[in-house]
Write a structure and sequence with these properties.
By secondary structure, this protein is mainly β. It has a domain of 112 residues. 3% of the residues lie in helices and 47% in strands. The protein has a four-stranded antiparallel beta sheet with strand order 1-46-45-44, with no helix packed on it.
Length: 558
């Protein structure tokens, strides 16, 4: 049975839309209801925060779903919601949330308009939202109805692209596109179409794959994997347009003007996403992996079935010279000047032998490191960041900063989580990278927000040069962020595990990254467990162990 919505929802939502001043002052303002809070998510402008209130901390526990505005207007939306089971759209227009059904293995998906006075939640799909086990690999494990995967928002924030299981289907969802402004299902594609690839351009043109044909039974012909495009604002009146057939992986250039994709015969193609409809252009044959740089319309690099390495128009390294592992990712620097790849890849252990080559004609490859993380190769202006000495289960490695060709290596820290070097947005040639060092993962702990119990010292390296600066001795993975202007590093430091709330608790703090001493100011808020993204000088912070527990809106001054 679905949990009924509280009776004062209409009145509360009207207040949420209209807003009003707050009597709170200073850099922090509590915006949530009273109680123990967790699991915050926000919109991209920090206008709204959704969270769980009084969530049960036992395995599979759930809580009341609330949404609050930055000025402190709070609404209870539903009960019995799982951690990670809700999202606020990037524009702050709507809240989406999943509810586990009585069967325990299926869930519904609902929508709430956050901008219209008097709006009430509406069920978009009464069933078919996939669930995941609290303890993976255990058949009897309770399920979470999460919304962290199986979906994405378009770059404009206008559309929500997701997969829904039709009745009596257990594993292959259909494709649906929800208009975030209205909560309307504006585009659908059945027969498991969400199992293929989808991407949306900033102008809300969606490129997607689907198998055409192949519904004639086991003795009939197989479906043909076909690539289409459709303008989502015109989805009600236009049919999808075919780009190509027998297609595979796809990537857009950084200027969103060109689509680069593979066909199943391993040929590599480009398609003009501006002049559509347009005929595709073949770039290469016999390709395995490929990458597109951020420079201009994109330099394209790819590996061949013969273990060769190529950069379109400049570099061709024979297989006997390059020896590219067919499972190796290809990484191009943003300016297209350097290409990185791997030999001896162990995908299950996330590691291999990291190699480098310049992209100019006649360049030769050189080895950078053995047992390097295949997911942590970050060429930045004037430097290369990577992890080496990755352990035999692919969890931790040692962070290194080097020149772009791998020379002049400087150790940054040991026991850094793989996929754990967090790069801030580049500003010209300036960059910041924050990460944990000396990290430990407690696999026996099940945190209330369903995140891994991963804690270490917070380190920071910058484009100014040198090694790491240790900012704090104990920070949880994911609970640190750099401001848009790269002036501030905000984090929850000095954390310790609190068994009462099943989470790590510390103090919200900020350091000025430009100060050589990284001098710490007074903590902004104590008893904190989670932070949201930093937007300008604002963020939401969950502080269930503060003197007044709750979710806070924080506005700091650098």
């Amino acid at each position: 049975m679905r949990t009924p919505i509280v009776r004062n929802l209409l009145l509360a939502l009207a207040g949420l839309v209209a807003g009003c001043g707050s009597n709170n002052s200073g850099p922090t303002r509590r915006v949530s209801a009273s109680g123990t809070t967790c699991c915050i998510v926000t919109d991209e402008a920090n206008g709204h925060v959704a969270y769980l209130l009084n969530a049960v901390t036992a395995v599979g526990g759930k809580g009341e779903l609330h949404v609050a505005s930055a000025d402190g207007k709070d609404v209870k939306v539903a009960s019995g919601i799982s951690p990670g089971g809700f999202l606020v759209s990037p524009t702050g227009k709507a809240l989406f949330y999943a509810e586990l059904l009585p069967s325990g293995s299926d869930a519904s998906l609902s929508y709430l308009d956050l901008s219209t006075a008097g709006a009430q939640p509406k069920i978009l799909f009464a069933s078919g939202w996939p669930t995941r086990p609290v303890t993976p690999g255990v058949a009897s494990s309770p399920q979470y109805a999460t919304i962290e995967a199986n979906n994405f928002f378009s770059p404009s924030g206008r559309y929500f692209v997701l997969g829904i299981l039709p009745p009596n289907v257990s594993g292959i969802p259909d494709l649906h596109v929800i208009d975030v402004e209205t909560g309307t299902d504006v585009f659908q594609r059945g027969n498991g179409a969400y199992a293929y690839l989808e991407a949306v351009l900033p102008d809300d043109t969606m490129v997607f794959q689907d198998a055409v044909g192949g519904n004639s039974g086991v003795n009939g012909p197989p479906g043909v994997q076909t690539l289409f495009w459709i303008a989502l604002p015109q989805a009600a009146s236009m049919q999808p347009v075919v780009i190509d057939t027998f297609t595979g992986a796809l990537t857009f250039t950084s200027d969103n003007k060109t689509l680069v994709y593979q066909r199943t015969d391993r040929s590599l193609w480009s398609w003009d996403a501006v002049a559509r409809p347009a005929k595709p252009t073949m770039l290469a044959a016999n390709t395995v992996q490929y990458s597109v740089s951020d420079a201009g319309q994109g330099t394209v690099a790819y590996s061949g079935t013969d273990h060769s390495l190529h950069v379109a128009g400049t570099l061709d390294l024979a297989g006997a010279t390059a020896k590219v592992d067919t499972l190796s990712p290809i990484v191009l620097s943003a300016d297209g000047a350097d290409v990185y790849y791997f030999q001896n890849v162990e995908t299950q252990n996330r590691r291999g032998t990291l190699m480098h080559a310049g992209t100019a004609a006649g360049a030769t490859p050189t080895k950078i490191a053995d047992n390097a993380s295949i997911y942590d190769v970050h060429p930045v202006p004037g430097a290369l960041l990577y992890l080496q000495n990755v352990d035999a289960v692919g969890e931790f490695g040692d962070a290194v900063r080097a020149a772009r060709d791998g020379s002049a290596a400087t150790p940054l820290g040991t026991h850094v989580p793989t996929t754990g070097i967090g790069l801030a947005k580049l500003m010209g040639t300036s960059w910041l990278a924050a990460h944990l060092t000396s990290a430990t993962l407690d696999k026996d702990k099940k945190l209330v927000d369903a995140a891994p119990a991963l804690v270490g010292a917070l380190g920071l390296t910058t484009s100014a040069g040198g090694g790491d600066t240790t900012v704090d001795p104990a920070t949880r993975q994911g609970q640190f962020a750099v401001s848009d202007d790269q002036k501030s590093l905000v984090y929850i430091g000095g954390v310790a595990f609190d068994a009462v709330i099943d989470n790590y608790v510390g103090a919200l703090a900020r350091v000025a990254v430009s100060a050589p001493s990284m001098t710490l100011k007074e903590p902004l808020l104590t008893g904190a467990t989670e932070i949201g993204p930093v937007v300008g000088t604002t963020l939401f912070c969950n502080a269930p162990k503060a003197s007044t527990p709750g979710v806070y809106f924080v506005n700091f001054t650098p």
